[in-house]
Amino acid sequence: YAGNIGDAIYAAAAGQVVYAADGLKEYGNLILIKHVNGYISAYAHNSKMNVKSGENVTAGQKIAEMGASGTNRTMLEFQVRLDGKPIDPTQVLPIN
């Protein structure tokens, strides 16, 4: 998703932050949130992370700010995984 540096990034659903670091260089500053029923959401390339590993978050909570870490343009790379496999986010997220 395109945007501007500093645009707010919000948690798609409630869960626990299981990773908030920059150890995977191709994703830059990456946040992974574990949700119920085997779902994980990923938010990559953040300029600032507002959460730490182990924290619980609520749906809609600001977790980061958009950036260009790990890439050459400002963007959010958003993924949803079920039992470790990527799925189409539109199948599980509300339209609004």
Name some characteristics of this structure.
45% strand, 8 strands, mainly beta, 96 residues, eight-stranded antiparallel sheet
Task: Report on this structure.
The protein has no helices and eight strands. It has strands spanning 8-10, 15-21, 29-34, 39-49, 56-57, 62-66, 77-82, 85-87. Strands 1, 2, 3, 4, 5, 6, 7 and 8 form an eight-stranded antiparallel beta sheet that branches. The radius of gyration is 12 Å and the shape is globular.
Rg, nearest Å: 12 Å
Oligomer: single chain
Briefly note the structural class of the backbone: mainly beta
Terminus-to-terminus distance: 16 Å
- As residue ranges, the low-confidence spans are none
